[in-house]
Specification:
This is Putative DNA polymerase. With 135 residues, this protein is an alpha/beta fold. It contains 5 helices and 3 strands; from the N terminus they run H-E-H-H-E-H-E-H. It has one domain: Uracil-DNA Glycosylase, subunit E (3-Layer(aba) Sandwich), CATH 3.40.470. Strands 2-1-3 form a 3-stranded parallel β-sheet.
Length: 135
């Protein structure tokens, strides 16, 4: 797999470092668009308001939070929170799927387009797609 092309993307800077996956042993992968400023500050995905909202929703649905890991299609924070196609092209290579991953949540249009090549997130709301034993 080819590494991200940070120089062509233009987002990488001393103040805007890539936010890595939070790793660990997980069965659920939550994939967002790009990190916010708080995520860049802490160096961890989904630690800001959207992350708290997601964790609250997952908890209410009965998902074990210790089995969830978080990632983004683009690893650096884009200006004005606007992820552009060049950012996705330069940064996204593949999802960090592990052997025991059973569920992938694509959280938004950009993850949907990058991973499945589809668009129109609202029409995909609640749709289950199974590939290689992963929903």
């Amino acid at each position: 797999m080819e590494p991200p092309d940070c120089k062509k993307c233009g987002l990488l800077s001393k103040e805007n470092q890539p936010v890595p996956d939070d790793g660990g042993d997980y069965t659920i992968l939550a994939c967002g668009e790009s990190p916010g400023l708080e995520e860049v500050r802490q160096g961890k995905p989904f630690v800001g308001k959207s992350g708290q909202l997601l964790r609250d929703a997952l908890r209410q649905l009965g998902y074990p939070l210790d089995q969830v890991t978080y990632t983004n299609i683009v690893r650096c924070h884009p200006p004005d929170n606007e992820t552009k196609p060049i950012h996705v092209k330069c940064c996204y290579r593949s999802l960090p799927i592990k052997e025991n991953t059973r569920l992938v949540l694509l959280l938004g249009n950009i993850p949907l387009k990058a991973v499945l090549g589809e668009s129109g997130i609202t029409t995909w709301n609640g749709v289950r797609v199974e590939r290689d034993g992963i929903i």
